[in-house]
Amino acid sequence: MWRLLEPLRPEDREAFLALTHRRTFARDEVLCHEGDPADSLHLVERGHLAVRGTLPSGAAATFTVLSPGDYFGELALMRTDRRRTATVTALEESQTLAVAGTAFNRLCQNNPDIERLLSTLLADRIDLLSRRLLETLYETLDRRVHRRLLDLADAYGGSDGAVTIPLSQAQLADLVGATRPPVNQVLKRLADRNVVRLGRSRIEVLDRAELRRRST
């Protein structure tokens, strides 16, 4: 269930989903670029997507990883310039349900609860970005890596068992806000303690409980 659609009555939800069309994306395919005209909202149905932002200097960072049940594109549709605010890339073969901006606007007009929920969700996203910024400024790199690994393990696994995260160390470093060499050192220390197992373009989390202990 997409949280965005929770306020709708079942029949309204079904009517809205009937307006969507399914889109499939290959691994590393860009769904949209920052600054592109925005014409649709996407509900993530399958796979995982990286959301990245770029500064005029060319510096870039990954804000978050979207999982099934998440969505993106609503902010761009609400902006006056209707431009994408980030670049979204498929981390693996992924699938979304896309709905045209006009249908999304009608949904908001006919369901005031949606606009109230959007305000809450946008506030949550701002709070998340603010906490990530504070972590980057004041937390150790080790703790930041532990927390992002926990986030990713929850996104890819759900239960407390071992879970494979199909990301490279460079991609994790981008998400943490650091460069690959120091992140690699943190991962090696975790691997030496059998908390994770490292592979080619993947990180297997073996002990989530230990990661939680180290992240606090």
From TrEMBL:
<feature type="domain" description="HTH crp-type">
    <location>
        <begin position="139"/>
        <end position="209"/>
    </location>
</feature>
<dbReference type="InterPro" id="IPR018490">
    <property type="entry name" value="cNMP-bd_dom_sf"/>
</dbReference>
<feature type="domain" description="Cyclic nucleotide-binding">
    <location>
        <begin position="4"/>
        <end position="125"/>
    </location>
</feature>
<dbReference type="InterPro" id="IPR050397">
    <property type="entry name" value="Env_Response_Regulators"/>
</dbReference>
<dbReference type="InterPro" id="IPR018488">
    <property type="entry name" value="cNMP-bd_CS"/>
</dbReference>
<keyword id="KW-0805">Transcription regulation</keyword>
<dbReference type="Pfam" id="PF00027">
    <property type="entry name" value="cNMP_binding"/>
</dbReference>
<keyword id="KW-0238">DNA-binding</keyword>
<dbReference type="InterPro" id="IPR014710">
    <property type="entry name" value="RmlC-like_jellyroll"/>
</dbReference>
<dbReference type="InterPro" id="IPR036390">
    <property type="entry name" value="WH_DNA-bd_sf"/>
</dbReference>
<dbReference type="Pfam" id="PF13545">
    <property type="entry name" value="HTH_Crp_2"/>
</dbReference>
<dbReference type="InterPro" id="IPR012318">
    <property type="entry name" value="HTH_CRP"/>
</dbReference>
<protein>
    <submittedName>
        <fullName>Crp/Fnr family transcriptional regulator</fullName>
    </submittedName>
</protein>
<dbReference type="InterPro" id="IPR000595">
    <property type="entry name" value="cNMP-bd_dom"/>
</dbReference>
<dbReference type="InterPro" id="IPR036388">
    <property type="entry name" value="WH-like_DNA-bd_sf"/>
</dbReference>
<keyword id="KW-0804">Transcription</keyword>
